[in-house]
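Q: Give me a protein?
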Amino acid sequence: MTREHLHFVTGRLAEHSLRGVVSRLADEIGFDFTIDVLPITVAALMTPAWIARHLAPVAKASRVIVPGYCAGDLGPIEQAAGVPVERGPRDLRQLDELFGRNRRRADGYGDYDIEILAEINHAPRLPRAEIIAQAAELRTAGADRIDVGCDPGEAWSGVADCVRALVAEGHRVSIDSLNPVEIAAATAAGASLVLSVNNSNRHAAPDWGVEVVAIPDDIPTLGGLDETIDELASAGVPLRIDPILEPIGCGFAASLVRYHTVRLKYPDAEMLMGIGNLTELTDADSAGINVLLLGFCQELGIRSVLTTQVINWARTSVRECDLARRLVHYATGERIPPKHLEPRLVTLRDPKLAEFGAAVLDDLAAQIRDRDLRLFAEGGQIHLVGAGMHLADRDPFLLFERLLAPGFGGAADTHVPPTNVDASHAFYLGFEMAKASIALALGKQYQQDEALDWGYLTVSEESHRLRKAKAAAEERQP
């Protein structure tokens, strides 16, 4: 079989690092390659039109790989090369991913069979507009059904109008109440699921004409649950069973046992788990907890979960559950651990870190001829690299002082201070060093001019420095 030949395009500064990474991948994966070093220092400043004018034709190439920062239509390059062209990653240390390394997803990834019910807490206390707005946000995040949470006490006189308004917006609605009067009004207005039913209200369930969630009268012993199930089944009322999840310290382990016990006793019954009792009542970020609980539900055949996102650490629980249900569905179906499948759920720390090493950064400093400063975060330090200069320190304040004051870091520190660090440039360096410091503290990958990767919480940022530098380079390039 003919080996694929890849033609990599880069600038002068990245040549050494790119050659090392590509050589390793070529040996591990099995392909031939050439590297075209174009007459530009910084590869990020290349444009498709400029590359097309300077590209060295390689007749044996099957693909051309250009830097990830090369934005715009790649058509001019394809026309010049005569072969397909694609962008590589913005960080060449991530080239492994271009070849599917560390990826285990298959075409079926993304399927799920767990329904998410998202509760709007204390709905009677909220203005109608706020309820409608919350419901829209919850559906966008992945909720399949909006649960209207009522307060104990007298029946809410506005429940029917609230449900009717939500149904008019296209939402599937459930009503969270034990009050038969409240429930009757809600179901008549379009609510299609009732949370919850036990000995106190099960007599009225046949009149509602909708599915209900059966819960025990006595939670620790599951007392009354069988009687409620039998009565509902005899009356032809469709139901789901919720043995009730309890918080850590209040019977959490025992409640998991109850779910397993009920599943064994009712192997074909639909079940529901209210996971907010854990995410809202545990001093921990909710994403990991949601993944674990969704994994438990997936394996046990619990096909609906009720969640809330009230407390700040759980304010994105619906989105987390939406990602988690896809992850656990695939992992369970393929019988593999849920690892290297859903990077969007890894938010605090990155799955892996790639470093250049001090020797490569020293070599980079020797090659640089322009006035730009490059920042790196590795080996527990922030590295500031410029023409003939490589400074490193854990403290960004000390690093900045060393940049402006040769000898501050010791007699060996004899670099020439840059002359282009005006107020604007100092602000830029401070912003980037702050990101680098966060990356070091949390174990995240830092890449200059790129947002830190916070998984599904990432907010992309525009590189104003690169945008200005690219515009200036385009004016200078022949």
In short: The chain has a mean pLDDT of 90. The chain is about 40% helix and 15% strand.
